[in-house]
Protein backbone atom coordinates (compact mmCIF):
# COMPACT_ATOMS: atom_id res chain seq x y z
CA UNK A 1 0.00 0.00 0.00
CA UNK A 2 1.56 3.34 -0.97
CA UNK A 3 1.73 6.03 1.66
CA UNK A 4 -0.10 9.26 0.89
CA UNK A 5 0.24 10.24 -2.72
CA UNK A 6 0.00 13.67 -4.25
CA UNK A 7 -3.23 12.89 -5.97
CA UNK A 8 -5.36 15.22 -8.00
CA UNK A 9 -8.96 14.68 -9.12
CA UNK A 10 -8.21 12.57 -12.26
CA UNK A 11 -6.27 10.06 -10.10
CA UNK A 12 -9.33 9.33 -7.96
CA UNK A 13 -11.41 9.01 -11.11
CA UNK A 14 -9.11 6.47 -12.75
CA UNK A 15 -8.19 4.35 -9.70
CA UNK A 16 -11.22 3.17 -7.76
CA UNK A 17 -9.41 1.07 -5.14
CA UNK A 18 -10.93 3.40 -2.55
CA UNK A 19 -14.50 2.29 -3.39
CA UNK A 20 -15.86 -0.78 -1.60
CA UNK A 21 -19.18 -2.61 -1.67
CA UNK A 22 -20.64 -4.43 1.31
CA UNK A 23 -21.33 -8.12 0.87
CA UNK A 24 -24.85 -9.52 1.17
CA UNK A 25 -23.77 -11.26 4.37
CA UNK A 26 -22.62 -7.98 5.92
CA UNK A 27 -25.85 -6.22 4.93
CA UNK A 28 -27.98 -9.01 6.40
CA UNK A 29 -26.04 -8.92 9.68
CA UNK A 30 -26.35 -5.14 9.97
CA UNK A 31 -30.10 -5.20 9.30
CA UNK A 32 -30.64 -7.95 11.87
CA UNK A 33 -28.58 -6.24 14.56
CA UNK A 34 -30.09 -2.80 13.90
CA UNK A 35 -33.65 -4.14 14.21
CA UNK A 36 -32.80 -5.99 17.41
CA UNK A 37 -31.47 -2.81 19.11
CA UNK A 38 -33.62 -0.09 17.55
CA UNK A 39 -35.32 0.58 20.91
CA UNK A 40 -31.93 1.90 22.08
CA UNK A 41 -31.60 4.52 19.33
CA UNK A 42 -31.90 7.36 21.85
CA UNK A 43 -29.48 5.81 24.32
CA UNK A 44 -26.55 4.77 22.16
CA UNK A 45 -24.11 4.26 25.01
CA UNK A 46 -26.15 1.19 25.96
CA UNK A 47 -25.15 -0.40 22.67
CA UNK A 48 -21.78 -2.11 22.73
CA UNK A 49 -20.24 -4.78 20.53
CA UNK A 50 -21.97 -7.55 22.44
CA UNK A 51 -25.33 -5.88 21.85
CA UNK A 52 -24.56 -5.09 18.19
CA UNK A 53 -22.68 -8.18 17.14
CA UNK A 54 -20.95 -8.44 13.78
CA UNK A 55 -18.96 -11.41 12.47
CA UNK A 56 -15.20 -11.00 11.97
CA UNK A 57 -15.75 -11.20 8.18
CA UNK A 58 -18.15 -8.24 8.26
CA UNK A 59 -15.88 -6.26 10.58
CA UNK A 60 -13.06 -6.83 8.10
CA UNK A 61 -15.06 -5.17 5.33
CA UNK A 62 -15.25 -1.99 7.41
CA UNK A 63 -11.69 -2.04 8.74
CA UNK A 64 -10.27 -2.61 5.24
CA UNK A 65 -12.02 0.54 4.02
CA UNK A 66 -10.95 2.44 7.11
CA UNK A 67 -7.33 1.33 6.64
CA UNK A 68 -7.37 2.80 3.13
CA UNK A 69 -7.99 6.28 4.57
CA UNK A 70 -4.71 6.09 6.46
CA UNK A 71 -2.72 5.67 3.22
CA UNK A 72 -3.03 6.38 -0.48
CA UNK A 73 -5.81 8.92 -1.02
CA UNK A 74 -7.11 9.42 2.53
CA UNK A 75 -10.66 8.63 1.42
CA UNK A 76 -12.87 5.55 1.20
CA UNK A 77 -16.40 5.02 0.02
CA UNK A 78 -18.40 2.01 1.17
CA UNK A 79 -21.50 1.29 -0.87
CA UNK A 80 -24.51 -0.84 -0.05
CA UNK A 81 -25.19 0.11 3.57
CA UNK A 82 -28.87 -0.66 4.18
CA UNK A 83 -30.84 2.59 3.98
CA UNK A 84 -34.26 1.72 2.52
CA UNK A 85 -34.56 -1.46 4.59
CA UNK A 86 -34.19 0.37 7.90
CA UNK A 87 -36.31 2.88 9.78
CA UNK A 88 -34.59 6.11 10.84
CA UNK A 89 -34.06 4.73 14.37
CA UNK A 90 -32.65 1.47 12.99
CA UNK A 91 -30.34 3.41 10.66
CA UNK A 92 -29.01 5.39 13.63
CA UNK A 93 -28.34 2.21 15.56
CA UNK A 94 -26.65 0.66 12.51
CA UNK A 95 -24.42 3.72 12.15
CA UNK A 96 -23.42 3.66 15.79
CA UNK A 97 -23.06 -0.13 15.83
CA UNK A 98 -20.75 -0.35 12.80
CA UNK A 99 -18.74 2.60 14.14
CA UNK A 100 -18.01 0.60 17.30
CA UNK A 101 -15.82 -1.71 15.24
CA UNK A 102 -13.77 1.10 13.69
CA UNK A 103 -12.98 3.62 16.38
CA UNK A 104 -13.98 5.62 19.42
CA UNK A 105 -16.85 8.04 18.77
CA UNK A 106 -16.05 11.62 19.77
CA UNK A 107 -18.56 14.36 20.73
CA UNK A 108 -19.47 16.71 17.88
CA UNK A 109 -21.17 19.62 19.62
CA UNK A 110 -21.82 21.31 22.90
CA UNK A 111 -24.64 18.87 23.65
CA UNK A 112 -22.11 16.02 23.47
CA UNK A 113 -23.84 14.23 20.57
CA UNK A 114 -21.93 11.31 19.05
CA UNK A 115 -24.14 11.08 15.97
CA UNK A 116 -25.25 14.27 14.28
CA UNK A 117 -27.87 14.66 11.62
CA UNK A 118 -26.58 16.39 8.54
CA UNK A 119 -29.74 17.89 7.09
CA UNK A 120 -31.38 21.21 6.50
CA UNK A 121 -32.97 22.24 9.77
CA UNK A 122 -34.27 25.41 8.12
CA UNK A 123 -31.38 27.60 9.25
CA UNK A 124 -29.23 29.44 6.74
CA UNK A 125 -27.00 30.86 9.46
CA UNK A 126 -23.77 29.23 8.31
CA UNK A 127 -21.56 32.28 7.95
CA UNK A 128 -22.23 33.75 11.40
CA UNK A 129 -19.81 33.36 14.33
CA UNK A 130 -21.33 30.20 15.82
CA UNK A 131 -23.07 28.93 12.68
CA UNK A 132 -22.31 25.34 11.77
CA UNK A 133 -22.82 24.18 8.23
CA UNK A 134 -24.05 20.67 8.79
CA UNK A 135 -27.63 21.64 9.61
CA UNK A 136 -28.09 24.10 6.76
CA UNK A 137 -28.49 23.72 2.99
CA UNK A 138 -25.75 26.30 2.25
CA UNK A 139 -22.61 25.77 0.22
CA UNK A 140 -19.72 25.37 2.67
CA UNK A 141 -16.14 26.68 2.69
CA UNK A 142 -13.48 23.99 2.42
CA UNK A 143 -12.65 22.73 5.89
CA UNK A 144 -11.74 19.74 7.99
CA UNK A 145 -13.71 18.16 10.82
CA UNK A 146 -12.29 17.81 14.34
CA UNK A 147 -11.50 14.11 14.57
CA UNK A 148 -9.08 11.59 13.04
CA UNK A 149 -11.81 10.44 10.66
CA UNK A 150 -15.22 11.77 9.67
CA UNK A 151 -17.80 9.27 8.41
CA UNK A 152 -20.95 10.28 6.58
CA UNK A 153 -23.65 7.63 6.34
CA UNK A 154 -26.11 8.64 3.61
CA UNK A 155 -29.74 7.81 4.39
CA UNK A 156 -31.49 10.08 1.86
CA UNK A 157 -30.21 12.05 -1.12
CA UNK A 158 -31.22 15.63 -1.98
CA UNK A 159 -33.60 16.42 -4.83
CA UNK A 160 -30.72 18.36 -6.39
CA UNK A 161 -27.29 19.60 -5.35
CA UNK A 162 -25.54 18.55 -2.17
CA UNK A 163 -22.48 17.40 -4.09
CA UNK A 164 -19.67 16.26 -1.82
CA UNK A 165 -16.29 17.86 -2.66
CA UNK A 166 -12.94 16.46 -1.56
CA UNK A 167 -9.48 17.79 -2.28
CA UNK A 168 -5.90 16.88 -1.46
CA UNK A 169 -4.62 20.18 0.04
CA UNK A 170 -0.97 19.13 -0.30
CA UNK A 171 -1.29 18.94 -4.08
CA UNK A 172 -2.82 22.44 -4.09
CA UNK A 173 -0.05 23.73 -1.81
CA UNK A 174 2.63 22.20 -4.01
CA UNK A 175 1.08 23.79 -7.09
CA UNK A 176 0.97 27.22 -5.43
CA UNK A 177 4.58 27.05 -4.23
CA UNK A 178 5.70 26.01 -7.71
CA UNK A 179 3.78 28.94 -9.14
CA UNK A 180 5.36 31.38 -6.69
CA UNK A 181 7.80 30.44 -3.86
CA UNK A 182 6.49 33.45 -1.88
CA UNK A 183 3.36 31.36 -1.23
CA UNK A 184 5.29 28.95 1.01
CA UNK A 185 5.36 31.19 4.13
CA UNK A 186 1.65 31.96 3.64
CA UNK A 187 0.94 28.28 4.24
CA UNK A 188 2.92 28.03 7.45
CA UNK A 189 2.17 31.40 9.07
CA UNK A 190 -0.35 31.56 11.91
CA UNK A 191 -4.03 32.33 11.28
CA UNK A 192 -6.71 32.90 13.94
CA UNK A 193 -9.14 29.98 13.77
CA UNK A 194 -12.39 30.72 15.61
CA UNK A 195 -13.77 28.04 17.92
CA UNK A 196 -17.24 28.72 16.56
CA UNK A 197 -18.52 30.93 19.36
CA UNK A 198 -17.32 28.67 22.19
CA UNK A 199 -14.39 28.94 24.53
CA UNK A 200 -11.75 26.34 25.30
CA UNK A 201 -9.33 27.13 28.14
CA UNK A 202 -10.72 30.68 28.12
CA UNK A 203 -9.91 31.22 24.43
CA UNK A 204 -12.29 31.92 21.57
CA UNK A 205 -9.75 31.17 18.84
CA UNK A 206 -6.47 29.37 18.17
CA UNK A 207 -3.52 30.76 16.24
CA UNK A 208 -2.56 27.96 13.87
CA UNK A 209 -0.84 27.42 10.51
CA UNK A 210 -2.61 25.92 7.52
CA UNK A 211 0.11 23.39 6.85
CA UNK A 212 2.70 21.82 9.05
CA UNK A 213 5.08 18.90 8.72
CA UNK A 214 7.36 17.42 11.36
CA UNK A 215 8.64 14.11 9.96
CA UNK A 216 5.67 11.76 9.61
CA UNK A 217 3.49 14.26 11.43
CA UNK A 218 2.03 16.05 8.46
CA UNK A 219 -1.36 17.71 8.46
CA UNK A 220 -3.39 20.47 6.85
CA UNK A 221 -6.32 22.58 7.96
CA UNK A 222 -8.28 25.45 6.46
CA UNK A 223 -11.64 27.13 7.06
CA UNK A 224 -11.98 30.66 5.71
CA UNK A 225 -15.23 31.29 7.60
CA UNK A 226 -13.56 30.41 10.90
CA UNK A 227 -10.42 32.40 10.09
CA UNK A 228 -12.48 35.53 9.32
CA UNK A 229 -14.50 35.11 12.52
CA UNK A 230 -11.33 34.34 14.48
CA UNK A 231 -9.78 37.59 13.28
CA UNK A 232 -12.78 39.51 14.61
CA UNK A 233 -12.56 37.72 17.97
CA UNK A 234 -8.79 38.26 18.16
CA UNK A 235 -9.05 41.93 17.15
CA UNK A 236 -6.71 41.19 14.25
CA UNK A 237 -6.88 42.48 10.71
CA UNK A 238 -6.00 40.03 7.99
CA UNK A 239 -4.05 41.75 5.21
CA UNK A 240 -5.43 41.86 1.69
CA UNK A 241 -2.56 39.57 0.63
CA UNK A 242 -3.56 37.02 3.26
CA UNK A 243 -7.23 37.08 2.27
CA UNK A 244 -6.32 36.92 -1.41
CA UNK A 245 -4.12 33.92 -0.73
CA UNK A 246 -6.82 32.10 1.25
CA UNK A 247 -9.40 32.61 -1.49
CA UNK A 248 -6.89 31.66 -4.17
CA UNK A 249 -6.25 28.44 -2.26
CA UNK A 250 -9.96 27.75 -1.89
CA UNK A 251 -10.69 28.48 -5.56
CA UNK A 252 -7.98 26.05 -6.62
CA UNK A 253 -9.21 23.50 -4.08
CA UNK A 254 -12.60 23.62 -5.79
CA UNK A 255 -11.22 23.52 -9.35
CA UNK A 256 -11.62 20.54 -11.70
CA UNK A 257 -7.94 19.75 -11.49
CA UNK A 258 -7.85 19.30 -7.72
CA UNK A 259 -11.40 18.69 -6.55
CA UNK A 260 -13.05 15.30 -6.75
CA UNK A 261 -16.82 15.69 -6.74
CA UNK A 262 -19.31 12.98 -5.85
CA UNK A 263 -22.98 12.66 -5.01
CA UNK A 264 -23.38 10.50 -1.95
CA UNK A 265 -26.14 8.04 -2.69
CA UNK A 266 -28.44 6.24 -0.31
CA UNK A 267 -26.40 3.57 1.43
CA UNK A 268 -23.02 5.23 0.82
CA UNK A 269 -20.58 5.72 3.67
CA UNK A 270 -17.87 8.27 2.98
CA UNK A 271 -14.82 8.07 5.25
CA UNK A 272 -12.29 10.91 5.22
CA UNK A 273 -8.91 11.31 6.86
CA UNK A 274 -9.15 14.86 8.22
CA UNK A 275 -5.41 15.49 8.17
CA UNK A 276 -4.92 14.79 4.46
CA UNK A 277 -8.20 15.83 2.89
CA UNK A 278 -10.19 19.04 2.99
CA UNK A 279 -13.86 18.85 2.13
CA UNK A 280 -16.89 20.89 1.25
CA UNK A 281 -20.38 20.50 -0.11
CA UNK A 282 -22.46 22.39 -2.63
CA UNK A 283 -25.81 23.93 -1.70
CA UNK A 284 -28.81 21.65 -2.15
CA UNK A 285 -32.55 21.59 -2.61
CA UNK A 286 -34.71 19.14 -0.70
CA UNK A 287 -37.77 17.16 -1.60
CA UNK A 288 -40.93 18.44 0.11
CA UNK A 289 -41.88 15.25 1.96
CA UNK A 290 -40.16 15.11 5.37
CA UNK A 291 -38.87 11.54 5.01
CA UNK A 292 -37.44 12.22 1.53
CA UNK A 293 -35.28 15.18 2.64
CA UNK A 294 -31.51 14.86 2.37
CA UNK A 295 -30.30 13.12 5.49
CA UNK A 296 -26.83 11.98 6.39
CA UNK A 297 -25.64 10.82 9.79
CA UNK A 298 -22.18 11.92 10.79
CA UNK A 299 -19.77 10.10 13.03
CA UNK A 300 -16.42 11.44 14.26
CA UNK A 301 -14.00 8.68 15.13
CA UNK A 302 -10.71 8.53 16.96
CA UNK A 303 -8.62 5.72 15.49
CA UNK A 304 -6.03 3.26 16.71
CA UNK A 305 -4.36 3.57 13.26
CA UNK A 306 -4.07 7.37 13.48
CA UNK A 307 -0.87 9.20 12.55
CA UNK A 308 1.26 11.48 14.73
CA UNK A 309 0.34 15.17 14.46
CA UNK A 310 2.53 18.29 14.36
CA UNK A 311 3.00 20.10 17.68
CA UNK A 312 0.56 22.92 16.88
CA UNK A 313 -2.34 20.46 16.69
CA UNK A 314 -2.10 19.76 20.40
CA UNK A 315 -4.28 22.75 21.26
CA UNK A 316 -7.16 21.76 19.02
CA UNK A 317 -6.97 17.96 19.25
CA UNK A 318 -5.80 17.49 22.85
CA UNK A 319 -3.10 15.00 21.86
CA UNK A 320 -0.63 14.64 19.00
CA UNK A 321 0.37 11.06 19.82
CA UNK A 322 -0.58 8.48 17.17
CA UNK A 323 -3.34 6.08 18.17
CA UNK A 324 -4.36 8.09 21.24
CA UNK A 325 -7.68 9.53 22.38
CA UNK A 326 -8.02 12.93 20.73
CA UNK A 327 -10.29 15.17 18.72
CA UNK A 328 -13.96 15.93 19.15
CA UNK A 329 -15.65 18.95 20.67
CA UNK A 330 -13.34 20.05 23.44
CA UNK A 331 -15.25 22.36 25.75
CA UNK A 332 -17.69 19.93 27.27
CA UNK A 333 -17.49 17.64 30.26
CA UNK A 334 -18.27 14.03 29.41
CA UNK A 335 -20.07 11.95 31.97
CA UNK A 336 -19.12 8.69 33.69
CA UNK A 337 -21.04 6.59 31.16
CA UNK A 338 -18.94 7.94 28.31
CA UNK A 339 -15.80 7.40 30.40
CA UNK A 340 -16.73 3.73 30.81
CA UNK A 341 -17.55 3.42 27.10
CA UNK A 342 -14.26 5.09 26.19
CA UNK A 343 -12.24 2.68 28.38
CA UNK A 344 -13.96 -0.33 26.90
CA UNK A 345 -13.48 0.88 23.30
CA UNK A 346 -9.85 1.85 23.89
CA UNK A 347 -9.07 -1.55 25.33
CA UNK A 348 -10.84 -3.41 22.53
CA UNK A 349 -9.34 -1.35 19.71
CA UNK A 350 -5.88 -0.65 21.17
CA UNK A 351 -6.33 3.13 21.42
CA UNK A 352 -4.15 4.79 24.07
CA UNK A 353 -6.02 6.64 26.77
FE1 LIG B 1 -17.30 18.86 7.54
Automatic annotation (TrEMBL):
GO terms for biological process: antibiotic biosynthetic process. It comes from Orrella marina. Coiled coil: none annotated. Its cofactor is Fe(2+). The lineage of its organism: Bacteria, Pseudomonadati, Pseudomonadota, Betaproteobacteria, Burkholderiales. Residues 59-300 form the TauD/TfdA-like domain. InterPro entries: AlphaKG_dependent_hydroxylases, TauD-like_sf, TauD/TfdA-like. Keywords: Antibiotic biosynthesis, Oxidoreductase. GO terms for molecular function: 2-oxoglutarate-dependent dioxygenase activity. This is TauD/TfdA-like domain-containing protein.
